[in-house]
Amino acid sequence: MASGFKVLKGPHGLSTLQQAFKCITVQSVTGCPLQRFYSVTANENGAKASVNAENMSLLENLNLLGVDVKMARQRQPGVLRRIFTNEQGLASFLQGKGASRQTVASIISRYPRAITRSLEHLEQRWQLWRNIFQTDEEIVAILDRSPESFFRSSDNNNLKKNIAYLSSLGLSNKDLHRLLATAPRTFSNSLELNRQMVEFLEDVCVELGGTGPKEFAKAIISRNLYVLIRSTKRVKANIDNLRATLKLSDAEFLTALQGPVAKILDLSNEYLKNNLAILQGRLIALGSCEEDVKKLIIGYPMALYIGAVTLSTKLDCLLQGGITMKQILDRPKVLDYSTKNVAARLEELRGINYDFKANGIGILDLSRKRFSAKIEKLVTSTDE
DNA sequence: GGCACCGGGCTCTGCCATAGGT
DNA sequence: ACCTATGGCAGAGCCCGGTGCC
After folding, report:
1. Looking at strand C, which nucleotides approach a protein CB closer than 7 A?
2. Residue A154 CB: number of other CB atoms within 10 A?
3. One GO molecular-function annotation for this sequence (predicted)?
């Protein structure tokens, strides 16, 4: 069909004809009315002018939709020069799915290329996402959060293959849901890129003498939904770095990786390296040994996720509150709570003369509800 | 009833660089 | 020459409660 028109393709002008033809085709397929009409003369003032100029009627439409045109121009200037776009089709499509006017405007402002997708494409992609999400609302919320994840790729077939591939890894529907909700970019990756990461993880497992590479990869992905949107280079550098630092046996390291350590594999390399160095320095200065550092990292790898300043402040808060470093090392989960929260609890416990030496520091990492219940009990028992 | 253990929930985008296509 | 599609990067925690053991 299109090849018949290629014969007509000339230096300029005729390509416009071809596009006009395409547009009419789209119209007949989707039943969607043409959004804008162009007089042929508008494109006859030379190829250069029409190529470089922004499409005025498109700008007008975008303004009517409440789009931040300045932002759109800054992000994807080429889109504003396109002759045929589908902004109104996109807007009514999204509104039909429950998106507000503001959401639509914000989506287009942040990812203008969205308006180049045909209705057919949108319907199909939406259905593919609906295989994983139960409601349109969920999808709208994600588009509002991250329009690029949904619109960046025009390859629905690749999306289909990704879903099939990720399912084939043994990830449950629930995992897929978490994955798409949390790191939607994963599904816009090329199948090949996802496959590379999975195979890389499997290789790591085998290298460490593991016997279940598939389970290993699955465990890491389901524990850290972000690995698939990281480069293998990054994840590899982190694994190498941790391996060199922890100096565990292969089997121990393998277990650690698919356990809580998985959570920190996606950190940027320098960040992890810096946090590691600072944590080591701080603990050694406080009288801990290398072994303590390792123990802390294995028991609570999130210590490396927390920024150096935050972690340092948190440690100070605990130490000043009468907690010893040894107690922290034995129960690193106390570092899981915010400094503000910990400080408030220390204060409250001081008020009732809570004895950390006798009772331990477990009370500090209770959920709010459990903490309150505990306090209440302590108060009433001392009253009696 | 109290505790330890464990995993999960929220959420993580928005920009830049570049190969490859027209 | 221009645009699209895609890879890659930096950035940086906190909280809750189910379950099973004693």
Report:
1. 2-17
2. 14
3. DNA binding
